[in-house]
Amino acid sequence: MPVYKAPVEDVTFLLNDVFSIERYNNLPGFADATPDVLEAILAEGAKLCEEVFAPLNRVGDLEGCTRHPDGTVTTPKGFKEAYRAFTAGGWMGLSVPEEFGGQGLPATLNSVMQEFLSSANLALGMYPGLTQGAIAALIVHGSEAIKRTYLPKMVEGAWTGTMNLTEPHCGTDLGLLKAKAVPNGDGSYAITGTKIFISAGEHDLAENIVHLVLARIEGAPAGTKGISLFVVPKFLVNEDGSLGARNGVSCGSLEHKMGIHGNATCVMNYDGATGWLVGEENRGLNAMFVMMNEARLAVGVQGLAQSEVAYQNAVAYAKDRLQGRALTGPKFPDRPADPIIVHPDVRRTLLSIKAFNEAARALVLWTALNGDVAHRSSDEGERRAADDHMGLLTPVVKGVLTDRGFENAVKAQQMFGGHGYIEEWGMSQFVRDARITMIYEGANGIQAMDLVGRKLGKDGGRAVMSFFNEVGAFCQENAGDETLKGFVAPLQQGLGHLQQATMWFMQNAMAKPDNAGAGATDYMHLFGLVALGYMWARMAKAALAKKAQGNGVAERMDAKLLTGRFFMERTMPETATRLARITTGADATMAMPVEMF
Amino acid sequence: MPVYKAPVEDVTFLLNDVFSIERYNNLPGFADATPDVLEAILAEGAKLCEEVFAPLNRVGDLEGCTRHPDGTVTTPKGFKEAYRAFTAGGWMGLSVPEEFGGQGLPATLNSVMQEFLSSANLALGMYPGLTQGAIAALIVHGSEAIKRTYLPKMVEGAWTGTMNLTEPHCGTDLGLLKAKAVPNGDGSYAITGTKIFISAGEHDLAENIVHLVLARIEGAPAGTKGISLFVVPKFLVNEDGSLGARNGVSCGSLEHKMGIHGNATCVMNYDGATGWLVGEENRGLNAMFVMMNEARLAVGVQGLAQSEVAYQNAVAYAKDRLQGRALTGPKFPDRPADPIIVHPDVRRTLLSIKAFNEAARALVLWTALNGDVAHRSSDEGERRAADDHMGLLTPVVKGVLTDRGFENAVKAQQMFGGHGYIEEWGMSQFVRDARITMIYEGANGIQAMDLVGRKLGKDGGRAVMSFFNEVGAFCQENAGDETLKGFVAPLQQGLGHLQQATMWFMQNAMAKPDNAGAGATDYMHLFGLVALGYMWARMAKAALAKKAQGNGVAERMDAKLLTGRFFMERTMPETATRLARITTGADATMAMPVEMF
């Protein structure tokens, strides 16, 4: 049975020592999150994930969801109780403003909890995760009536949410979507169409399901400028808030997927279902983007989460499995063989995952803190800078953390040899579950195009310049610090490569946009390497300072520094290859005739 | 339903134009393989794979194998008939010497067929594949009586073979194995023990199953020097060759695996089963290595095979799926959107797979031709050089082609977006099936250690020096050729990196073997890049020559050159990163205390 222990200590190190969360005390909700409260919340969240969510992970994979002839869907055994434990603990509204029934705590805490939940049980964690995304969208774009009707029930978890974008013929290219909305004359609309790949579209965890649906109002312009967003509940809601008639939306079938079997991935049929407009007519994509951006960050976290839980299990196996002897002679001569963690190739593999995980966690929290600033600061300049950061880093977090997260799950599985391929050990599930994170909420190629095609040039490159300035300033400030030399020098080099790549796009992609398209994925990963390297440099600085204070943390901080050193030595050199690929340009890529592929 | 078309044209280009197979006409069996015969054989093999094996691939995945209470195992529907078509066509003995009932054709042809079979249906192809490996081991190490008893039936495919190495507590470290053999006094032995992960251990395709089993003869030395190899048939064989009593070996259970569901992966229980020694007492590993080396090359081919079939399906989808518009404006303005193959990121992904596949196929055939020389040449020097090549390249082919093959299957799946995650499309199966190739026949970390720890220094580095000389000479000879500049220059640089890495090991790994262990995987991939780059340089040269001859092949040869250019520009730069990682050494990797992982 796979193990999982939530990395609480690492999170408190990041929040307290690296990012000094107390500096954010002026933001609403942060003053309540004193170190004691924070620790208590994390401990409680860890317990829920370790003891309630994690034991159901394999159950969910084996059982999957079942659709019955009447269109209802049953989730795997135990999911209902676990979901109830989640809602009873108030986790759904952890960072939802108090006026909507939440606790108003930092959204950063919610990101931490998302990691723990997704490590413990990705398929189960998706039900509340989607609901939180829908809540965020309704808070920003819902009318007062919609907020009043849906938010309290969603925040308490009695009702869950979904996002309905994809149709059989369109996923990425939403301009092609066909679902239509016809005004009923009473302010509501009749929604008709088919949506596919709808996670948590139908299930037995909640009394009602609140679908956010993209559709085209009769007569709307073609393309993306004619798409509106609607709220379509499974059960209509009466004036007094009680549930009324069943709405004309139902689950037509469940998909058979490679993984996340515990989550119901539905084909949803809308057959004149009653819906209400969210936000403005024809501005649906804009409204949905609140949910999508939220979801993209959460999916990045899922990538990290699978990497983390796969790593923990690989470490446990590597300490336990006896096979062969250390190259430098037996380490445990009294045993028939040494545990495989003595082998350099095993250690290298494990450290490459560990070094990624710790930096990725830092990147998530750094970005989440910026999210809190963007939403809660009273200072416009601060809000704008934080929002720039969010926009720029969202595709990087989504794309890089899921690509690497999957790779790492595969590497962790590899540590088990043949046993890794056997389902009973659970490593295959981590790989199969992790695989979806590279695809949903915008496949990673789309994230790369979002970064290169939209985010880089936005506002005259303000966001990316600010990122370069921050990293550059850090390097400059710490250039003289001998103890940080192993971190600053490779970071500086990586930053140089990233700046050269950016410059190359400016010079070569304006006239030939294919040059940007052909380099986008490498650029996204180059950006990710520099961002992760920067996180390591900051963690190293904080670890050195913490170690100097004493308090018996020397061993832990030394391990941190060693892990960081491994990252700088073994992962950062990749920046050179990424740059080299980008600057070869698109000629060879575009010249091949279609029929010769 | 996934598509598959065997790449016959690419194979004939390699055999005729790149490797000039007619130069091998002095070897036994090669003179029979005239261009016409070759083409006829490949066409026939392609047909079997495309029309019989491929349509059963998904069936096998869905149905899997079933073990009945009496220990018998049923394979998926249609497998029996397909296997019969294979044996009826004489494919099992394609390259087996005529004296044992085979056709004596080049083993190189068998490698080609292995690729086609593994692309079409990996799980089904494993049954004959293991049989061929067992045949090879028995030819080299079996006594006359054993050869007479088993080989004819195996070559005709009436009986299949297996290899039994792994036990629950030992896989890589065979020195720990416990299965025991007690002499029966009549020349036979009673074999007792449990073997796990035995592919094709029990099934309904053949009348008898011939297990090759590693076990320890009573009183044998501990460790690897006390292991012997035995042949243990499922049914004992009477003097007249007819089947006798059921032997004391049975399938205890089937494993539930991530993929290759159509192949029965068995726990095999030996309960005093009667077996006969193959080769010398206590030299069982030596005898088994014939089968393992054969199998390692075949598994490398399987990696390529999954990459190829996944690629073909991704191309078909990319030409068909309409989504978005080309960055340079609509390419099909009359359609609602352009096919996604217009997008640079999609093309980049597809080309990276294609460029690998074509070079990997060349590497396989180059190595297979060396195998034929090693086994068939009458010249001792030629045999020795070819054998050196085989020893050096076997871990590279196995490790690199399977690591990349899996990565490529993942990339191809990514082209399908959400549809790639749905089992119906078949892309998930390619990924799940490809995953085993990185693990079995020695996990890839073991291949890397074999290369760095055994093969590099063997015979004073004779094999690796000869490889460097060959590639270096090619670069020198063609340095002045302007048309090859884009190939020779990056190859030369990659070779330089590989030589530096080799030198670094010589200087730093003698005293500290961990430096070799921590760099082994990167070294294996660096070696693979140079080997694949060399294949591209040779293919480019052949393509230019062929194009110059006319004959209407210009378009195909231009595509070849473009694909090669893509490889040199986008894949070769990785050599620098690999070298940088290797030369950081093992310090950071080895310093981490076990409890801090």
TrEMBL record, chains A, B:
SUPFAM superfamilies given in the database record: Acyl-CoA dehydrogenase C-terminal domain-like, Acyl-CoA dehydrogenase NM domain-like
Residues covered by the Acyl-CoA dehydrogenase/oxidase C-terminal domain: 282-451
Keywords recorded for this protein, A-Z: FAD, Flavoprotein, Oxidoreductase
Domain Acetyl-CoA dehydrogenase-like C-terminal: 467-593
A Pfam short name: Acyl-CoA_dh_N
Top-level EC class as recorded in UniProt: oxidoreductase
Gene3D superfamilies (UniProt xref): Acyl-CoA dehydrogenase/oxidase, N-terminal domain, Butyryl-CoA Dehydrogenase, subunit A, domain 2, Butyryl-CoA Dehydrogenase, subunit A, domain 3
GO molecular function: flavin adenine dinucleotide binding; oxidoreductase activity, acting on the CH-CH group of donors
Boundaries of every Acyl-CoA oxidase/dehydrogenase middle domain copy: 163-271
Cofactor: FAD
Family of this protein: Belongs to the acyl-CoA dehydrogenase family.
Name this polypeptide is given: 3-methylmercaptopropionyl-CoA dehydrogenase
Taxonomic lineage from the root: Bacteria, Pseudomonadati, Pseudomonadota, Alphaproteobacteria, Hyphomicrobiales
